[in-house]
Structures are given as C-alpha cells and as structure tokens.
Amino acid sequence: METLSDKLKSLGVRQGLNDSPKSQPLTKNSSIDEVLKSFGEATSNEEIFICRQIYPLDYKHGFINLSPTFEMKILSEWVKSTRLQCMNPGEILFLDTETSGLAGGTGTYIFLVGIGYHNDDGFHIIQLFMRDPVLELAFLTFLSQYISSFRVVVTFNGKAFDLPLINTRHILNRISNPFLGLDHVDLLPLARKLWRDRLPSRALKDLEVEILNLQRTEEDIPGWMIPDIYFEYLRTGDASQLAGVFYHNAMDILSLSALFNLITTILSNPKSQWLSHSLDLAAIARLYEELGRFEEAAGLYESSIEQGLPHEYYIKTLKRYAALYRHQEQWDKAANLWSKAAEYKQIDACIELAKYYEHHKKDYHQAIHWSQVASIYLQSNRDLSLYTHLPLEEEINYRINRLKRKLTGLNK
Fold first, then answer.
1. In the structure, what pLDDT confidence band is assigned to residue 18 with cuts at 50, 70 and 90?
2. Across residues 365-374, what is the average pLDDT?
3. Out of 1.10.150.20, 1.25.40.10, 2.40.160.40, 1.10.645.10, which CATH number does the structure's domain 278-411 have?
4. For residues 242 and 17, is the Cβ–Cβ distance under 8 A?
5. By the number of CB atoms within 10 A of the CB, which of 7, 248, 295, 401 ranks highest?
6. Which fold does the domain 4-268 belong to in CATH?
7. Is 90 exceeded by the pLDDT of residue 117?
8. Closest Cα to residue 217, out of 19, 34, 10, 22?
9. Which pLDDT score is estimated for 271?
C-alpha cells in the first residue's frame, strides 16, 4: 500500500524547508521540536508549539520588497473602511491557517495558524501549532493573546474559509472570537478583479509565479495533502513531513504581505513601475469607476487603450469607456468611442450612435445610417442565437421605420 511519504516523493516533494532561513536536514521520526528548530526560533509549552522567523526590512519576496510602503486610501474605499487608511503598518496582521479538512464545517479544526506583521526590525512570522486536538481551547486562547494589538487582518479567501472556520471553533469552545473586532481585507476578490482578464487562475500560488515572479521550492507541500500529513503525525508522532507544511504556511504569509504591498501600491499609483500590463491598467480603471472616481477612471481607460490591448479587451474597454462618458452625459466623447467600436462591427455601438444622432444631434439621416449599419452587421453575424437575433432584428427595423416616419414628417 502506498504510504503518505511515497505519495510525497512521487510528487517531487522532499522533506525540509526553504533556505530562508537555513533549514537543517530532518530524519524520519523527527519530533515536532526538531522540525520547528530546523528553520526558526522555536519554543513550546505543554499545549502549544511556536516558531518565529524574522525577515529583514530589505528582504524581497519575488521582486517585491516586504518593507511596508503602502498607501491605503483606494483600498480603504474598496473595502468600505474609513479607518483603514489611518492605520500604521504595525497594526496589520497577515493570517493563514492549515486545517484538518478543506471543506470547512464543524468537523474541521485548525491545527496551524501563521500570522505575519511588520515591526521596526523587519517582517515577523509566528506560527502556532496545536499538537493535539484535545488542546484546542488552549490553542485558541493563546492565539487571542497574539492578535490583541492588531486592528486589521489580511487573508486570501479568508472571508469564505479562514475567518468563518475560526469563528466556528470559538463558538464550539464557548469563547469570544477576537477577530470579530478587526477590519478584514480579503485579497482574493481583489485579485480576481485585477487579474481575471489576464490570468486563467488567481490562486495564490499562480499569482506568486505570474505576478510576484516567484517560484516555490520543491520542499512545498500541496495544500490538498496537508490534512493527511497532520493525521499521520497524530497517529505516529513522526513530525518530519510537517516541515513542508510549515514551509507552505510561511510562504503563504510572505506572499500575502508581498501581494498586499503590490496591490496597495498599484491601486494608489496605477502609473507605478510595478504595473506594466495594459490589461491591469484597464482593470484598475474599472475599479476606479466602481468607486465613483470617474475622471481618474477615464484617464486610466485612455492609457490602457494607448498602451495596446488584445482585440477582445480593446473592444470591451472602448464600450466601458464610452458607457462612463454616457453616465456623465458627455455625449460627444461617448460617440467618438462608439464610432471606434463600430469599426469592428459592434452592433450595440451602432445602435448607441443611432440614439446619439437622433436624440442629441437631431440628425435623423445619420441616425438612420447607423441603424442600417447595425442591421447589416446583424445579418452577417453568425454567432448570435435565434433567441438573440430575432428580437434585435425587430428592434432595429422598428427604429429604422420610426426614424423614416419622423424624417418624412419633417419634410412635409
């Protein structure tokens, strides 16, 4: 029967941790104390094992310096937290958990919590490990002591997973949940908003590669194997495979901090050197628009178009940009963008031009012209279903006939 160690070896995973800081070789049947001391300062009591690491102020995770340089005004508007922009970096907690299952629910508990925070001497990572589930109350109580000085918690998918699970475990242990008083920034929805057009996956490990320019070492443990590794530790007492779990958790915390640094920077300064892709610029323009920052959004749309966008997104951005001007009733600017989109046989852009010339310019000849162009494009479009095609054809024909009657009335 294939053991857990065999599965890990088949995936190219070896025991040990990243070389930052240096790890020591581990042997089979290593204790949890040996694992923790292999790559950081470790302490323990009867209930909790603690590992501490400090990364210097000039440490780079991928190409991002972990030194806190973020300006949080735009982020605070997006998360609807006015007090967020007033906080200092030392009040922000980066959180990631490792659990006994990936589905959540009352049968899932947390056995490892990684927290990161900025201090004057660098970026600190503290990992709290629960050596036995019967010690959960002590584990959660100990965790509460560590987070009492923080006002913001940053997670990746924490809204859906980490924080609800933490709340469940506190309820089951009949103790108050200290995280309920913290502002929460979940970077996953932001990552989806910023990179959905450019990246097929916005998972944290994919963002590390594509955005942070970082590749994890072969010592990393796949997330789906972590529950089995913990259960094997509980069964055998062999903690050697847990080294990869601690590495995985620490990397998640470092990536959270780096990604937070990057996102806050590019949101506040979209012309930053850290933002070089036109699709990212268009995505930030959409976010600015959603925040009601219309003038700034218009400038970002313009810049993304000037930089050059893939065809599909060029058309989408033209339309979104035009819709922004329409919302502001800047009709001439909107019409200019609809005209550019119409060059690519965009039926809806032609219809918008017909409306523009009819209602704002009172030029019925041009309104008829653009309605007829829309009709021609519709007839040549083989991608639309009959369900979509027929009502649109009826709408365009009705518009043409109505405009012709209106024009005939004027000529009498």
1. very low
2. 96
3. 1.25.40.10
4. no
5. 248
6. Nucleotidyltransferase; domain 5 (3.30.420)
7. yes
8. 19
9. 82
